[in-house]
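Comment thread on ticket #2218

A.B. wrote:
> Attaching the input chain for the structure job we discussed in standup.
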Amino acid sequence: MEIRQLRTFRVVADNLSFTKASKILYMAQSSVSAQIKLLEEDLNLKLFDRIGRNIVITDAGQKLYSYARKIEDMTKEIRSEVSNSQQAQGSLTIRAPETIASVYMPDIVKEFHRDNPQVKLNLINCTDLQLKEELNSGRIDLAFVMTDSINFTDVNVKMLKTENLILMSHLENKLSKKKSVLFKDLAGESLLLPSTD
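C.D. wrote:
> Ran it. Output below, let me know if you need it in another format.
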């Protein structure tokens, strides 16, 4: 098992595509496939299931992924320490809903990159379906969610702020004439709600 094979595996797993991984790594697709095959043979495990043109990471692949990320980050940390670089290096993968990403993240990302130019930020749209597993496995490092409550064990959770909800309607809708709207007033109304699925 080689570090470059683990990096190739991590990039394929991030993109669930050998084609995309080959472009990111500036390698021929056949080389990417060969490295994954060698890694699978070395571990005697199947890391990806191939379903037609799509690939899905296996349970064994999920376990390897967190180690591959850690090894990659440790390698960057070693290079940073040995070269006496004072700047943080590596990558940070964050899940955030589009609303948060578009409203709050531009200024945060700008400030973060100013202070940490060597760190690569990966922003991914947020879905809470596998959020706990993704955080625990190391697939993502940080997540922002908009919710009334969250019950995750083994995950550090911190409330950053509260947001007011705003209800908008057409001027001809009966609700637009009310000064305040209660949940019971919404009965029978069609609502457009954001979804992360």
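A.B. wrote:
> Thanks. Noting for the ticket: The chain has two domains: 1-86, 88-162.
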